[in-house]
Amino acid sequence: MTDTLLTAADAGLLNCHSCKLLTEVQSGPHAEQHCPRCGSHLHLRKPDSLARTWALVIAAFICYIPANLLPMTSVTSLGNVQEDTIMSGVIYFMQHGEWPIGLVILVASIVVPLTKLFILIYLLITVQRKSQWRPLERTRLYRVTEAIGRWSMTDIYVVTILVALVQLGNLATIEAGIGAIFFGAVVVLTIFAAMTFDPREIWDNMESTNDR
């Protein structure tokens, strides 16, 4: 005897993607239904979730390369110009004894974006392959990925603050480099990728198993 997995869809409920309100399925096509609280369109699953997530992940990987190769900041001091990438900035802080700052930048700007991208790829592949391995753990992994993605903006915040504060005319100025634009794009793309992925598709494969 197998346990029956009851989902919201089986119970005749739709979950609003915007405000998370559970709503009873009304007569007529789902695409015509709207959330009674916020007015958003209601769907059983996010439309084209896998295709949209793949597109955003690939675009983030493309932007990640120039984000790490091009300078994040350009410092002009007494006529001398020094440009730093993310990694050279981490090395600079480490060499000058500011290892906590260097470690924060390393984790927030390099480890977190890459980890998030690889986790999203893993989830996409497992869903497409209809994997039934540890759905609860994969769902939790997605939740963690969704929560930590915004912390990648730490490096952008640091650059913004430095550009605003260090404007000393001919003595010293700091300007944001073109790498900051690409890095900001990586962060935004990964945030949207996590938003477009529908973790309920992880459990759809479990439903097909229980129906056998």
Description:
There is one protein chain. This protein has 212 residues and is mainly alpha-helical. It has two domains: 44 residues, no CATH class; 163 residues, Butyryl-CoA Dehydrogenase, subunit A, domain 3, CATH 1.20.140. Helix content is 55%, strand content 10%. The strands form two sheets. Strands 4-3-5 form a three-stranded antiparallel β-sheet. It has a two-stranded antiparallel ribbon with strand order 1-2. Helix 2 packs antiparallel against helix 3 and helix 3 packs across helix 4. The protein is elongated. The relative contact order is 0.17.
| Count of extended strands | 5
Helix content: 55-70%
Question: Which segments are poorly predicted (pLDDT under 50) over 5 or more consecutive residues?
Answer: none
CATH architecture of the largest domain: Up-down Bundle
Mean pLDDT comes to: 77
Oligomeric state of the chains present here? single chain
Fraction of residues in β-strands: 5-15%
- Largest beta-sheet characterization: 3 strands, antiparallel
CATH topology of the largest domain: Butyryl-CoA Dehydrogenase, subunit A, domain 3
Q: Over the alpha carbons, how many angstroms does the gyration radius reach? A: 22 Å
The number of helical segments is 7
The coarse overall form would be elongated
